[in-house]
Amino acid sequence: MKLRLHFVVDPMGWLCISVVFGIWLYNTFFIPKLVLLPHYNEGHIPWAIVVCYYIASALCIAALFRASTADPGRLPVDPKIPHSEREHWELCNKCNLMRPKRSHHCSRCGHCVRRMDHHCPWINNCVGEDNHWLFLQLCFYAQVLSLFTLVLDFCQYYYFQPLTGLDQKFTTRHELALLRVSALMGLVMFGGMTSLFYTQMTGILSVILKLLPFFFNYRFGSKRSWQWALAEVCGTRWKPLQASHHFRTHV
């Protein structure tokens, strides 16, 4: 099942996601220019470190794009409600549309979202059933990239050998200030993403623990697995979850 593109018209959200993109662009440009490429050219570090940093950077921006543009689980205007599930639906008093239980109305987006967790201004999108796993993926990749950046900033002054082929360009003359800004950004991003990722994973694990008794129940002749419990939280867009989750509410 393909991810549907979803754009939210919110100037505040555009500002927040622009800040995140600016931080990514700053570090993706200055860390290789000031640290990685000069030390690689002088033989101080292997090429694998340079490639790994670019891969982490690419994964991070790809996750940001996917999380910010993926449909979080927006309900259609005229949902097709199976007869057997009508008792599990209710009327939203804000948009006057039928929605399954555990759905919430987002005032920023202006519609109801299945299993809405929260509206995140930093991706300018809701976090719901269909993009929760993408949001977790973004948090993880952002942690990796920011930690990678912090380690390189530290190594530049306390571990790497001094560079011999320095020029007098602006970036070289202001290297200390530029890397201090990079380290500050990395520290803020790593602290924020780690806290958010920990909160999200704690909530998911608590739900999975509550669902543990159901793992031993039989339905349609098979046991429910950990993928079913994870799909209950993160939705079914992730392919490994699609195969094991048979109980999604129809809309």
From TrEMBL:
Top enzyme class: transferase
Keyword Acyltransferase: yes
Major subcellular site: membrane
Keywords per UniProt: Acyltransferase, Membrane, Transferase, Transmembrane, Transmembrane helix
InterPro entries reported for this sequence: Palmitoyltrfase_DHHC (IPR001594), PFA4/ZDH16/20/ERF2-like (IPR039859)
Annotated TM spans: 12-32, 44-65, 177-198, 204-220
Palmitoyltransferase DHHC domain: residues covered: 88-204
GO cellular component: endoplasmic reticulum; Golgi apparatus; membrane
Pfam families: DHHC (PF01529)
Record field: catalytic activity: L-cysteinyl-[protein] + hexadecanoyl-CoA = S-hexadecanoyl-L-cysteinyl-[protein] + CoA
Record GO biological process: protein targeting to membrane
Signal peptide: none
Protein topology in the membrane: Multi-pass membrane protein
The keyword Transferase is assigned to this record: yes
E.C. designation(s): 2.3.1.225
Compartment annotation: Membrane
PANTHER family per UniProt: PALMITOYLTRANSFERASE ZDHHC21, ZINC FINGER DHHC DOMAIN CONTAINING PROTEIN
Protein name listed in UniProt: Palmitoyltransferase
Organism of origin: Labrus bergylta (ballan wrasse)
